[in-house]
């Protein structure tokens, strides 16, 4: 019974969006704990008591601070605010022209594929939906955006294990090999409210999981069966990135 | 032992205001905390808000956390549960949301069909529905004890009830799913 209930909860609940941790870090950055705030409050109270006791003398005598003002410590490098994602990198080279994207119907390839459009940093494109599907000959993973598909790279990996951005946690997906889908400036937080972990167990596509949404880079990991190649292309109306995983013969 | 010492050290550093140490403590708990929040609240957005608020409150109250035989994990989950309860008590006009229309699947090329992650075997769906039909406190008790694998004492701590109450609540909820279940099967350790 324990296993049945555990599975039922695993099926009926979802993992959090990877950017949730970043949102929390941004809220906590610079916020004092009670511990660090307490000396300040005590010092304020002590200073107030001194003022009362000393009366007018305190106004005449040079005032001695009984507490040190805590300068606002800069957040650690890992604790960036979401706004930092919009800061352009200095002296970044001009983006190379994107290679042509294979259209639907072209042969599958096991080579890495890249493409997409560099979104203006002042108006980043947001991920609005993701879904999986299956058809004769291929399984499909689709990411939908509210604007032109941002710059992306799709590459096969030797294993279905991915590193979760931000936390560094290792995530091993279902399947024998993996596909890493990396999208720049196409954040899904907070625009994307759908599942972050699909486990369709199709013939080729076994799992699709959002493994990162951190510092402007969104990553999906796909767990697939071994020996599969991909067909990667974009569609419009709405704008979406499509990854077809070739099914076994 | 090494892991426990690392947790103790992170806890000690976090109490002194070390954000990275707190981050190291909190990161592994975001997944169970979020799932817990979705068990108690409707929708990912409310659950995310509850976990965020709980994290902020945990950070601000960390200096007061002494352990007292209870680990950081059940302590933080108790903060999450409290935040979820508060969210449910908010006025309706603050939590009501318009239903999100389902989007159609991609029309071209091919004829893909959208798949729900909950598209599983029928009996598992039945069990999930039965769990969803339980009272919130019963559902919470099952989630803590069976899914998060918390002990009776830890489950009681998170629910903020005596251990005996937690035990009876877990057993009652289990019997509502399977009336013939024996206590030994529910509390098998």
Walk me through the topology.
The complex is a heterodimer of chains A (249) and B (189).
Chain A: H1 2-12, H2 19-28, H3 34-54, H4 57-60, E1 113-115, E2 127-135, E3 138-145, E4 152-157, E5 161-163, E6 170-172, E7 177-184, E8 197-198, E9 205-214, E10 217-224, E11 230-235, E12 240-246
Antiparallel strand pairs in A: 1-4, 2-3, 3-12, 4-7, 5-6, 7-10, 8-9, 9-10, 11-12
Chain B: H1 2-15, H2 19-40, H3 44-61, H4 72-89, H5 92-95, H6 122-132, H7 136-147, H8 152-159, H9 163-177, H10 183-186
Helix pairs in contact in B: 1-2, 2-3, 2-4, 3-4, 4-8, 7-8, 7-9, 8-9
Structural write-up:
The complex is a heterodimer of chains A (249) and B (189). In chain A, a hairpin with a 2-residue loop joins strand 2 and strand 3. Chain A has 249 residues and is α+β, with helices and mostly antiparallel strands. Chain A is built from 4 helices and 12 strands, in the order H-H-H-H-E-E-E-E-E-E-E-E-E-E-E-E. Chain A is globular, with a radius of gyration of 25 Å. Chain A has a 6-stranded antiparallel β-sheet, with no helix packed on it. A 4-stranded antiparallel β-sheet of chain A has the order 2-3-12-11, with no helix packed on it. A two-stranded antiparallel ribbon of chain A has the order 5-6. In chain B, helix 2 packs across helix 4 and helix 3 packs across helix 4. About 15% of the residues of chain B have low confidence. At the A-B interface, helix 1, helix 2, helix 3, strand 2 and strand 3 of A face helix 2, helix 3, helix 6 and helix 7 of B.
N-to-C series of helices and strands of chain B: HHHHHHHHHH
Largest protein interface, residues of each chain: A-B, 61 and 65 residues
- SSE arrangement of chain A, N to C: HHHHEEEEEEEEEEEE
Distance between the termini of chain B: 22 Å
Overall shape of chain A: it is globular
Strand order of the largest sheet of chain A: 1-4-7-10-9-8
**Beta fraction of chain A:** 25-35%
- Profile the largest sheet of chain B: none
Give the quaternary arrangement of the chains.
heterodimer
Report the C-alpha radius of gyration of chain B, rounded.
Answer: 19 Å
Number of E-type strands of chain B: 0
Number of strands of chain A: 12
What's the main sheet of chain A like?
6 strands, antiparallel
What level of helicity do the residues of chain A show? 10-25%
First and last CA, distance of chain A? 39 Å
Structural class call of chain B reads mainly alpha
Query: What average pLDDT do the residues of chain B reach?
Result: 78
Radius of gyration of chain A: 25 Å
